[in-house]
Structure formats: C-alpha cells, structure tokens
Specification:
Length: 324
C-alpha cells in the first residue's frame, strides 16, 4: 500500500471512530415518561384518547427503586405502556400535595391508571414482584376495577369482610371519603380479628396520618392496630407509625416508650428482636440521648440467636446510639 492509500485508510478509520464516539446514544429502554405536570399530562391523555399511567414515587422509597430497576426501566416496562402516556409524580414535592390528597396516596410506590376522561381505572400499590405487577397492569391497559363491580361483589357477599374492605378503600381513594371510612370502620367490627380488619385499620391510619396529616387522630388508629394484632406482621409498622405520630405532636419520649414496652412484652423472639431494633432506630432518629444507654443495655441482654439480617441491622445501630 502506497503512502497516499495508507493515509487515506488512517483518515477513514479515524472518521469512523469519531462517528461512533459522537453518535447519539440509543434511547434507554423502559417507560417513556412525559416531562410535564400531572395536570398537563391529564389534558394530553384526553386529547389523544389514551390512558395515563401515573407513578407516585419518592427519592427515599426503596421499593420504588426496585420497581424501576426490575420493570419500569426495562423493555418489558416499555411494552406494557406503549399504548399509554406515563408521568411520574414526586410524593415529597410540595407542588404535588394536592395530587397526593386528590388520589389518596396511602403508600409508595402507587401506580394509578387513569382513563382518557380522567377517571380512575385502577391502581397498584407497592411492588410484589414483576409477575404480579405485570399481570395487574396488563388488566388495566383496557379494563378497570370499577366501583360498580366492587359494590356488586359486596352485595353478593354482604358478610365477607374482605369484599367490604375493598369497597371501602376504593370509595376512600376515589372521592367518597366519608362513606369509605364508614365501611372500613364497619370491617373492624364485623370481623375484629381478621386480616381484613387489620388491613382496614392500616388504611384508616395511613389516610388520617399521611393524606390528611392528622397525627393526633392517627395515633389512636395505629395503637388499635398494634394492640389488636400485636403478634402479627401488622404490629411493627403500626407501633412505628404510632411512635412517629407521637413525635409529630411533640411527644417523642412517649413514642419511644411505646416501642420499648412492645419489645419488652413481645411473646415471639422474632417479634421481640424487631421491636427492640425499632426502639433503637427511633431513639437514634430522634436523638433521644438519655435513652441510648437503656437501648444498648437491652441489645446486650438480648439473645442474639436471631436471623442474620435482623442481627446486622441491630449491630449497625450500636455506633449510632453510642454517638448520641
């Protein structure tokens, strides 16, 4: 190859490398999010006669990040929403507070699907795995969970606490809070020890605390849930929210005492370990320096023959408590 040909070849190679380096990156797979406010997205959905997926999320929400990683940022997420518009709403942004109240966002992540006319087709709260979420979202692509169908189910099974709870929660979430609350309270009387009753109390607690921002009222709901279902998976969250409500009304020591008593009287070792950890976490979070020695002493006395993950969480709290 002569010098001219060699130079031409090098130039062509250099141009190719430059072209590759400067070429625009391929679009990332996943849901195509609209960069706009929810109100504008609703208007756009109406104009285009499309459904709108609204994903309520927050930076601190670990489950939101799992949902994003495992589904929303994947090609499967793109497939599920290709016939929809989609927008994300930051739960913590003050400008979105009216949406949190309007759509009654009880927990995160919450994915609401709106029909083109702006009414709700249904929602998915949380993320119980890719398969479950995909199935439910596929159903909401064209179908809906209507109040009429839920009312029909309750009428057919009037003494079924689960059907009553679902109807009450749907009414609460879709603009009929007074009736929804009344039905949810009825569930707690109809089957006071059932999982449906626990779920109803949880919804009422989240509604009064997170949506209505009324910790004074919410603390009574959380205490009822925690006391009635003390040895179940509902107790941990309930006692934590009870303590949080006490802190929000200026009584963090009362909240800490409640967690301490729960840890002291728990019957199951696993429950006791979780209660003790939450007590320590609360003391650390609220910098209750005078209580730190008590928590550390309780940690030292506790039988450490517990699940490794729980033990690791407790051990991680020790330096934080010592540093208060």
């Amino acid at each position: 190859m002569n010098n001219f040909s060699s130079a031409l070849s090098r130039a062509a190679s250099g141009a190719l490398v430059l072209a590759i380096a400067t070429a625009p990156a391929a679009a990332a797979p996943g849901v195509s999010w609209m960069d706009t406010e929810l109100s504008d997205a609703i208007d756009r959905a109406k104009e285009t006669d499309k459904r709108l997926l609204v994903n309520f999320t927050a930076q601190w929400c670990s489950v939101c990040k799992v949902l994003k990683k495992k589904l929303l940022s994947t090609s499967e997420g793109a497939r599920l929403t290709r016939q929809m518009l989609a927008v994300q709403v930051d739960f913590d942004d003050v400008k979105n507070r009216s949406y949190v109240e309007k759509y009654v966002i009880l927990g995160l992540p919450t994915t609401v699907v709106l029909k083109p006319d702006g009414t709700e087709a249904g929602r998915i709260m949380g993320f119980d795995g890719k398969e479950d979420f995909t199935k439910r979202l596929e159903e909401l692509q064209t179908g809906e969970i209507s109040l009429v169908s839920l009312q029909r189910q309750h009428t057919k099974h009037p003494h079924d606490p689960s059907a009553l709870r679902q109807l009450g929660q749907a009414l609460l979430e879709r603009g009929a809070p007074a009736r929804g609350q009344a039905l949810l309270e009825r569930v707690t009387w109809l089957a006071p020890r059932s999982d449906a009753a626990a779920h109803a109390l949880f919804v009422l607690g989240r509604y009064t605390h997170r949506v209505k921002r009324d910790p004074e009222t919410a603390r009574h709901v959380w205490r009822e849930l925690a006391s009635r279902f003390s040895e179940t998976s509902w107790a941990g969250g309930a006692w934590w929210w009870y303590a949080r409500a006490q802190a929000e009304i200026g009584r963090p020591l009362t909240g800490a005492y409640a967690l301490q008593m729960w840890s002291k009287h728990a019957k199951k070792p696993t429950t006791g370990a979780k209660a003790l950890r939450l007590w320590g976490l609360f003391v650390s979070k609220h910098a209750l320096k005078t209580l730190a020695p008590r928590v550390l002493a309780a940690f030292a006395r506790f039988d450490r023959n517990i699940a490794p993950k729980e033990k690791a969480k407790m051990d991680a709290l020790i330096p934080k408590l010592k540093g208060l």
